[in-house]
Amino acid sequence: MNLIKKYKVIIIVVLPVLLLVIIRSFLTDHFKSDAKKWSESSVTQSNLITEKEIGTLHGEVLLIDLDREKTEINLLSKNKLYIRPDSILSKEYINTIKAHSGPVLLYSTEPSISARIWMVLSQLGNKNIFILTNSADNELLKYKFLPDTTNGRNLKN
User: Which domains does the chain have, with CATH numbers?
Assistant: First the structure.
């Protein structure tokens, strides 16, 4: 009993923290999702869409142009936003995207920017987001790779 009185403050602080750590360790959802789940859409290219395939989408399309300067896209859409990539996480834009009920198309002249923004928005729980691209095969290797001749093995004396 004397021991409890002596360490009462420490017990009051440590016991709840220890209890919370134990509860947290038994929860299975430490992270919102795993990497395999998010990379699957990129591997299967189900997150890519071309202008020809836009007609197959259901609902009103929201086009988000991610280029730093406004570009003209041949897609006729009533809902078009020009958002700089560094401001996509602002509360105003996130609320607009979440409130939109139809598909959201991300467009940039640089495909890696669209892919990064798609990943961020998808991890925030947004559904029905696509990357607008000119061709669906942009993930294929398009370069002929040659052996490295600078290491000296291929050089003749």
Answer: 35-132 (3.40.250.10)
